[in-house]
Amino acid sequence: MPDRRRSFGRMGGGRDAAWSMRPATLVLLVTLWIATIGNVALWRAMAALPELADGRGLAFMVAFGVGVAALTALPLALLAWRWTLKPVLVLFLLAAAGGAFFMVSYGIVIDRTMMINVLLTDSREARDLLSPQLFGVLAVLGVVPALAVWRAPVRWATPGRQAFHNLALALLAVAVVVASAGLFFRDLSSTMRNHTQLRFLINPLNSFYALAIIGQQPVQRSGVAVLPLGEDAQLKPPATGAKPPLVVMVLGETARADHLGLNGYARDTTPRLARENVASLRNVWSCGTNTAASVPCMFSHLGREAFESRDANTEGLVDVLQRAGYGVLWLDNQAGGCKGVCDRVPKVDYKQLHAAAPDLCSGDECFDEVMLRGLDERIAALPAERRARGVVVFMHQMGSHGPAYYKRTPAAHKRFTPECTTNALQQCPREQVVNAYDNTILYTDHFLAQAIDWMRTHDAASATALVYLSDHGESLGENNLYLHGLPYRMAPDVQKRVPWVTWLSPRFEQQSGVTVACLKAKADERASHDHYFHTALGLLGVQTQVYRPQLDLSASCRAAG
């Protein structure tokens, strides 16, 4: 007869069977590690809840922890086969380590929106997130236990018996989940209802669930098909002697409304704009809490709620302006691009900007002023018949993109010091984080003023205007939250309240019938990204059935005129 002990040793990687373990044992050990150490963000959040501060609250937390462990064990039990168990366990461990670091360090949760951010992160953004702390956590919480799992000898049963063992472990996990929920159902339902963010802290199931939701509800609806919009778009006939419009539409990045001096911030972060005749709207709310959600939404005609539930992709503001006859140009200082909204118009990406003005760049990143360099030549390359009707230039800033705020500003614009000069924001005193962030707003002020100065050189031949609107806001350490991207319904206002600044030349005011003074009167009225599409069409005199005057912030100004 064959030596049964030696046979098991070969199955376990050549080690003695006395040192090997059953698959279920390995699953339970990994589950215990993940449910405790890997979920420190969850337990910290629950420990901070006042309703869980008594003995019953502690008992509920223990039962909840057992339930989390059982829920984690359930998919592992179903995948406990010879060629799948160890790769899956390693994946869970590494995902849990990465999730734990970012949730603890930046106070984020991981849901569909955050996972979209991860999937759309470019190499420049990824580098800004790398740090010794990240590698240390990945090593201790992920790599070391993953290596231990990979080297652990496993004693496998026959396929039939292994199927029985897997099913038994899965059923046990289900029973434990049901029992732990049943024992404290009232506490569970109340806690999950009042603190919905907790479900997005269950690590690493939150990441896998988010990926599954993205697979079911992809970022782009209906594949890559984009339906036409505003096919009837046309320009209002110009008045006699009118000059063609030249409008710069600046898409800001990560700017929050309450950090603009124009909006009453204690620091003078907008000294240049304060000297200009601009209207600054102080009560504007974003369409999302990250670029991937906000940009396609704000350029859509639908509004936030309808955009979220749309069945198909449609063209947006940029397309309608081009279809109406304008010369349209998109300049992008972000490697992440325009999220599809500029795909059908002439555009210049960050690499082309870098090549044209390397003195304004460091490495593969450029300061926003690079978009003004050679702008006249870029506009001159547009079709002459379109330029005769008017030109709209979109500029997508790097702006205040974090966490490496200190990289976004030239030395001459670092007024607020000392800065946080690391991407590990939680390692800096909060005032240094705010200093670095405020310097980015100060530099945006300079950039916008430079753009206005450039437009003044075209006053004789054009009716010039500038509109600046940020895509979303940012958390700067309030309540231990950093960056952005929390689910909209639970995100703090600072991630959703954004600046909207408008400058109109006297000629543009006269031709459009809209004055800066009228827009200033709307400074505290509630507005949102829902108004952007329709306000832009109204300012630029585009007539189309998709235009909704009730969402045009300038419509009442024209009526008053």
Which short descriptors sum up this protein?
disordered N terminus; elongated; 561 residues; eight-stranded mixed β-sheet; 23 helices; two-stranded parallel sheet
Secondary-structure blueprint:
Elements: H1 4-11, H2 23-36, H3 40-47, H4 55-78, H5 85-106, H6 112-119, H7 123-129, H8 132-151, H9 159-183, H10 185-194, H11 205-216, E1 226-227, E2 234-235, E3 245-252, H12 271-274, E4 278-285, H13 291-298, H14 304-308, E5 313-314, H15 317-324, E6 327-332, E7 347-348, H16 350-356, E8 361-362, E9 365-366, H17 375-380, H18 384-389, E10 391-396, H19 430-456, E11 463-470, E12 475-476, E13 482-483, E14 497-504, H20 506-512, H21 516-520, E15 527-528, H22 532-539, E16 542-543, H23 555-560
Helix pairs in contact: 2-4, 2-5, 4-9, 5-8, 6-11
What would your notes on this structure say?
The structure is a single chain. The chain has 561 residues and is an alpha/beta fold. Helix content is 45%, strand content 11%. It contains 23 helices and 16 strands. The chain has helices at 4-11, 23-36, 40-47, 55-78, 85-106, 112-119, 123-129, 132-151, 159-183, 185-194, 205-216, 271-274, 291-298, 304-308, 317-324, 350-356, 375-380, 384-389, 430-456, 506-512, 516-520, 532-539, 555-560, and strands spanning 226-227, 234-235, 245-252, 278-285, 313-314, 327-332, 347-348, 361-362, 365-366, 391-396, 463-470, 475-476, 482-483, 497-504, 527-528, 542-543. The strands form 5 sheets. It has an 8-stranded mixed sheet, with helices on both faces. Strands 1-5 form a two-stranded parallel ribbon. The chain has a two-stranded antiparallel ribbon with strand order 2-16. A hairpin with a 5-residue loop joins strand 12 and strand 13 (482-483). The radius of gyration is 28 Å and the shape is elongated.
